[in-house]
Design brief:
This protein is mainly α. It is built from four helices and no strands. The chain has one domain. It is rod-shaped and about 125 Å long.
Amino acid sequence: MTGSARNERRGGLGRSLFEMALVVISVLLALTVDNWRDDQQKATLTSSVLGALAQELAANRAAIDEALPFQDRSSQAFRDALERYEATKEFVFPEEARSRSAAVRFSSAAYESAVIAQVLPRIKVDTLLKLSRVYAEQDAYADLQRNYASATLQVDFADGARYFRLLSNEYAQLAEAERRIAPLIDAAREAVAQELAPTRR
């Protein structure tokens, strides 16, 4: 083999290695850009879900603030009606309890969308724990509502004392559950706000 053939071969080999290195670098660069773009999209989605959670928690807290005085007044009104019934056997449904629905209708759509969108792994563990406590308590509250609805349907209206006692207890227990949920919502709102703070700068 002559010197020029050997140089040509080395030059061809060097060029091939350079082209392979260029292809590898191009692929790695493309993957890096794609990962960056994917991270940006997930960060935007996470921020959007956190914003929706903040709104949902605020709405649920406002619903408690509106319902709680009604629950307390209604519980007392049914205790008063029970006393009247036991004294006179007169069945008088309290007017106070006619003004609105007894229970809060908590929303959980934003939390469910966070689960579906698979952004929960991008949310801090402390925030997730606070959110899960809120939504678990809200589920227990809904169970309490179902239990009372079922019990109310089974009440014999001829037994006015039992009916008034049941409703007085229902309103009192709903109010107690709302008082338990309210600080949990406040803690979750604060945690979500802290996570949103860096993204809103």
